[in-house]
Amino acid sequence: MDDIVIRAEALTKVYRMGEVEVQALRGISMEVKRGEVVAITGPSGSGKSTLMSILGCLDRPTSGEYILDGENVAGLTDDQLASIRNRKIGFVFQSFNLLQRVSALVNVELPLSYANRPDEGKGRAAEALREVGLENRMKHRPAELSGGEQQRVAVARALVNEPAILLADEPTGNLDSKVGQEIMDLLLKLNHESNTTLIIITHDPRIASQAQRTILIRDGLVERNTQ
User: Fold this and answer.
1) Which domain holds residue 117?
2) What is the rounded CA–CA span in Å between residue 129 and residue 108?
């Protein structure tokens, strides 16, 4: 199996607003090894959110090549991207993005339903919740959980399909520093135990410093790539 799970070559992204073109990415090349923990940082407007959307198969580059877990995904259709996204990527967002009317268990089951794996539903979802320390909170709805517990549900949901990549976008941004560090410790523990590649987009230097490598994006280019 290829040791490189992400290989991006000369990625560009141009947004057109009427007659105006905005070049969000100007030719980014990068690689991420399987099982690696990488932080992507940069100021507002640097292009890191655009890069995250492309790495997460939420968008396509204007030009360039993106190989995800051995598949060239740069030119796929929306439906093909959705399939790849569901099979190979787990997302953790700053705002948790949980369904408020259903339990933690049902929230975690949802990706299995989308992947046509409903038979694995409750058993696999319960296992994922146990992995993040919520075995006693499975039947609770998000409003009955603390912010840290809601983010743990989001982590369990991201992991339930056993993705090649866990993509965390400001995962501690809505949490205080103590709870935020608990979530970071959990992500690092899961990375260590399952060898899931972890990519964290963050403004927080304390969070970035815990990654094995930091990629600094500025003006749509990789400015620094440091161990």
Assistant:
1) 4-226
2) 8
